[in-house]
Q: What sequence folds into this?
């Protein structure tokens, strides 16, 4: 048996079931549901459908601990749920707080007092009791504590002429015009550097345009300048600002430093040396003006050394810089054949300068020349390294001679690279004034392959270094004899000593003749040879000249090289001769 439902039959029952279903599935507040709700209308059952979709991806920005979240509105949403996630990915969902808490009806909100960290935000739309799909996460936004810490100023001077910064003091050289810019390499760990402001400088002689510099860091001020003879000591205020408006104030005081450093006396040995270095000392330095010694430099200048005469000097140049105000020592290299002078240049931080010099001159020669020049009794040393027609005298006697025809620039006997003269055996010779007459020494180097000439007395040979005159005279000389031997002798009466060794093998040979109380001795390559002879004790003054490369009478020309001719006013000892020969 069947029973009929009251009040409308089957249609009414269907409507009731739909209503129950609809009521059962509405679950407000559950994210991730997607709904298409249907509204019933009358007995016809016709309805309008509406869709609630996915939330838009928001944009975010932070100012201090406040985060602004903005998104595109969803239709037909009438509210939104804002959710926050930690980190760049993943993370635990946290309901937004502050102005973004609960259901937000606008399309933006501000979450204040956001915890420090890196965050992402999502938007979930709502319509009445329905909840849409949570949208994609925003880009990350960093939230930091509020910046209440001033920036850190870091000052230096740029484009400087005559100024130096020491702490909060700006030293300037008021004796001359100058200028600088103030450079601030400001740092700030919070909101970041923003600008630098400079105040007015109220000091006589100073000029500066107040400025607010936003370009940087580094921030560079307008120039600060002063005129010559400025002595004022004004104060100057400078401020640094960060992006949060925090201020770091600085105050500078100007101090005039127009006083040059003190000390720095320089010393070094004067005169001829064969050393390859020279010891230079500079005394301690100080600075009473306040800015401090900033630069300490040893400088030198050089000139060509001819004999004992220095040619025109070149410009001063730096040798070495050094630090510290204590005494300083240095041994710069020197070059044979050059004169050297040294000076110390001491400069403080603003450009005041002290230059100390010495009256000394270093004259660098080779070891052989230095040995000869350091021997007592030396009258003249003709190194024969000349380039013209004058034979320069390197000793104090300054007895320059004349070169006639001999070829200059030939390789010399000594290791210092000095040159020699070559005589052609036809008409070449050189002539100097005679300055020896009693006891004396004649010393030179020779190189020849000539067979020589004659035997017996020296005046029969080819003149090497000679003051012979015709007849029986008070004269003397040294000559290359036949067979390649060398002879030395004196006149009135004529006596000669001849070497036991030959010297015409093309090698360089050291030859020395000494006369002491009439006794004549001959040395070859540092060793006595041929014994000795005793001649007159009279002054040998017959000739006013000494010729190189021939007899003084204009005869018997020598073919070969001569170098380093020296004469002394005394007879050198055998040990001295040996030392000279070994000094080559």
A:
């Amino acid at each position: 048996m069947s029973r009929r439902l009251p009040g409308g039959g089957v249609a009414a029952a269907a409507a009731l079931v739909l209503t129950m279903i609809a009521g059962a599935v509405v679950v407000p507040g559950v994210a991730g549901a997607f709904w298409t709700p249907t509204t019933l209308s009358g007995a016809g059952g016709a309805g309008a459908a509406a869709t609630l979709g996915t939330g838009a991806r928001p944009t975010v920005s932070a100012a201090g601990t406040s985060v602004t979240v903005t998104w595109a509105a969803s239709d037909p949403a009438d509210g939104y749920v804002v959710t926050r996630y930690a980190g760049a990915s993943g993370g635990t969902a946290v309901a937004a707080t502050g102005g973004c808490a609960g259901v937000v009806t606008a399309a933006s909100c501000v979450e204040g007092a956001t915890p420090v960290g890196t965050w992402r935000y999502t938007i979930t739309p709502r319509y009445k009791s329905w909840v849409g799909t949570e949208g994609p996460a925003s880009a990350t936004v960093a939230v930091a504590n509020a910046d209440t810490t001033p920036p850190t100023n870091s000052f230096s001077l740029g484009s400087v002429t005559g100024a130096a910064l020491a702490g909060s003091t700006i030293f300037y050289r008021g004796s001359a015009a100058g200028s600088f810019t103030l450079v601030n390499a400001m740092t700030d760990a919070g909101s970041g550097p923003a600008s630098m402001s400079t105040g007015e400088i109220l000091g006589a002689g100073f000029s500066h345009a107040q400025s607010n510099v936003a370009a940087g860091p580094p921030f560079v001020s307008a120039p600060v300048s002063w005129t010559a003879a400025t002595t004022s000591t004004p104060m100057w205020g400078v401020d640094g600002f960060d992006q949060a408006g925090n201020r770091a104030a600085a105050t500078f005081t100007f101090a005039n430093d127009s006083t040059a450093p003190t000390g720095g006396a320089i010393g070094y040995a004067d005169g001829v040396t064969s050393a390859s270095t020279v010891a230079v000392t500079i005394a301690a330095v100080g600075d009473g003006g306040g800015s401090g010694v900033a630069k300490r430099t040893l400088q030198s200048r050089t000139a060509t050394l001819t004999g004992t005469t220095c040619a025109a000097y070149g410009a001063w140049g730096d040798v070495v810089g050094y630090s510290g105000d204590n005494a300083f020592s240095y041994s710069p290299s020197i070059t044979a054949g050059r004169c050297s002078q040294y000076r110390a240049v001491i400069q403080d931080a603003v450009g005041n300068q002290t230059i100390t010099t010495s009256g000394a001159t270093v004259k660098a020669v080779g070891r052989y020349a230095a040995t000869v020049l350091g021997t007592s009794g030396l009258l003249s040393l003709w190194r024969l390294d000349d380039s013209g027609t004058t034979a320069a005298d390197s000793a104090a006697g300054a007895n320059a001679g004349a070169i006639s025809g001999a070829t200059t620039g030939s390789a010399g006997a000594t290791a210092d690279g000095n040159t020699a003269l070559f005589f052609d055996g036809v008409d070449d010779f050189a002539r100097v004034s005679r300055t020896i007459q009693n006891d004396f020494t004649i010393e030179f180097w020779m190189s020849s392959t000539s067979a020589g000439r004659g035997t017996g007395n020296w005046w029969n040979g080819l003149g090497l270094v000679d003051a012979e005159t015709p007849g029986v005279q008070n004269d003397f000389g040294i000559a290359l004899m036949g067979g390649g031997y060398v002879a030395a002798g004196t006149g009135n009466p004529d006596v000669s000593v001849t070497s036991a060794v030959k010297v015409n093998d093309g090698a360089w040979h050291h030859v020395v003749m000494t006369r002491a109380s009439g006794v004549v001795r001959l040395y070859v390559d540092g060793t006595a040879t041929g014994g000795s002879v005793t001649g007159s004790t009279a002054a040998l003054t017959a000739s006013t000249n000494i010729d190189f490369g021939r007899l003084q009478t204009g005869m018997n020309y020598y073919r070969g090289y001569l170098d380093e001719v020296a004469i002394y006013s005394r007879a050198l000892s055998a040990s001295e001769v040996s030392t000279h020969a070994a000094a080559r």
